[in-house]
Every structure is written in structure tokens, then in C-alpha cells.
Amino acid sequence: METLLTNVDFWHWLILGLILILTEFYAWSIFFLWIGISAIIVGLMFYFVPSISWDMQLLLFAVLSATTIYLSKKFNARE
User: Fold this and answer.
1) Tell me: the pLDDT tens digits for 6-39?
2) What DSSP designation does 5 have?
3) Which residues of 47-62 are buried (b: 16+ CB within 10 A; e: fewer)?
4) What are phi and psi of 78, to 5 degrees?
5) How far from 66 is each of 2, 9, 13, 33, 71, CA to CA, in Å?
6) Contact predicate 33/1, CB 8 Å
């Protein structure tokens, strides 16, 4: 598993983000949109700073996903 994660490149994150955003068209929940945007941000960061390790990439993805989902729920709350 670790060898699989060490071979991840920036375009893997970009493709994952695009797949998640395209999944949003069928889910209609806005949940996959923010996770997809988080994956694209991680891919762009990895493109500009290629020395980021795979565990830092996963941690950054998890933190960005949780933050964007929390903020979307907070600002899009229906009263």
C-alpha cells in the first residue's frame, strides 16, 4: 500500500478532483463538490511543491475536505 501511495503524482489528485466534481452532477448534495475542490487544491499544491510527502498530501486533503465541508454547511445553512 505504501508503494502505491509513494507513486502518486499531481495529476492523480487533479483527476480525482474532476471525478468527484462530475459525481456531484448525479448526487445533488454539494458534498462531493467540496471534496473535489479539495483534491484539486492538493494537486495544484503538489504541482508547485513536488517535495510534499504522500502522508502530508493525505493529511492536507483530509483537513481541506473537512474545512470546506464545514464552511459550506455553515454558510449554506437553511433555516
Assistant:
1) 678 889 999 999 999 999 888 887 889 999 999 9
2) H
3) eeeeebeeeebeebbe
4) -95, 125
5) 24, 22, 17, 12, 9
6) no
